[in-house]
Design a protein that fits this description.
Layout (H helix, E strand, L loop, with lengths): L3 H26 L9 H14 L6 H8 L3 H12 L3 H17 L6 H8 L4 H12 L3 H13 L1
Helix pairs in contact: 2-3, 3-4, 5-6, 6-7
Length: 148
C-alpha cells in the first residue's frame, strides 16, 4: 500500500511527463489556422528552431526558412504557434535549461550559455519572469524531488 506522499509524487511525475505531449498537440492543432503558416512551413521552422535555439537567431533568418518577409513571418508564426517567435525561442531555451538544471555538476552559468542566454543574469531574469522561480530554486526543487 502506498502512502499519500508517494501517490502525490507519482501523479506529479505523470503530469510532468504528459505536459510536453499536450504542448505538442496544441501546437499541432494550431497548424491549420487561417492566416498562419502552412503545415510544411510550420514543420520546417519548428525543426529549424529546435536545432538552433541555443544560438543567436535573427528574425530574417527564421523568416527565410519559410520564404516570407520578416513582417509576414511574425504574423503567421504568432497565429500558428500562439506566441511570437522570440517567446517561442525563450520557451525552448527555458525547457532545455530546466532539464540541465537537474544535473548538479553543471554551473548555472554554463547552463545559461548552453541554453542560448547571453549571461547568467539574463537567464535568471527570464526564468524568474516566465517560470516564477530562479534557476537555483528550480535546481533545488528538482534535486529534492529526486531525493524523495
Amino acid at each position: 500500500m502506498r502512502d499519500a506522499g508517494s501517490s502525490t509524487e507519482i501523479q506529479f511525475a505523470e503530469i510532468e511527463a504528459f505536459a510536453p505531449r499536450v504542448k505538442a498537440a496544441v501546437r499541432q492543432l494550431a497548424l491549420n489556422v487561417k492566416g498562419g503558416l502552412s503545415v510544411r512551413s510550420a514543420r520546417r521552422v519548428q525543426a529549424f528552431l529546435n536545432e538552433n535555439f541555443s544560438r543567436k537567431l535573427a528574425l530574417a533568418e527564421m523568416a527565410a526558412v519559410c520564404g516570407l518577409s520578416p513582417y509576414h513571418f511574425v504574423r503567421a508564426f504568432s497565429r500558428t504557434f500562439g506566441a511570437p517567435p522570440h517567446q517561442y525561442v525563450l520557451d525552448l531555451r527555458l525547457d532545455f535549461a530546466e532539464r540541465l538544471l537537474a544535473d548538479s555538476r553543471m554551473t548555472i552559468a554554463d547552463i545559461a550559455h548552453l541554453s542560448g542566454f547571453s549571461s547568467q543574469s539574463h537567464f535568471t531574469t527570464v526564468m524568474k519572469k516566465y517560470r516564477g522561480v530562479t534557476p537555483l530554486q528550480a535546481r533545488l526543487s528538482k534535486l529534492n524531488a529526486k531525493n524523495r
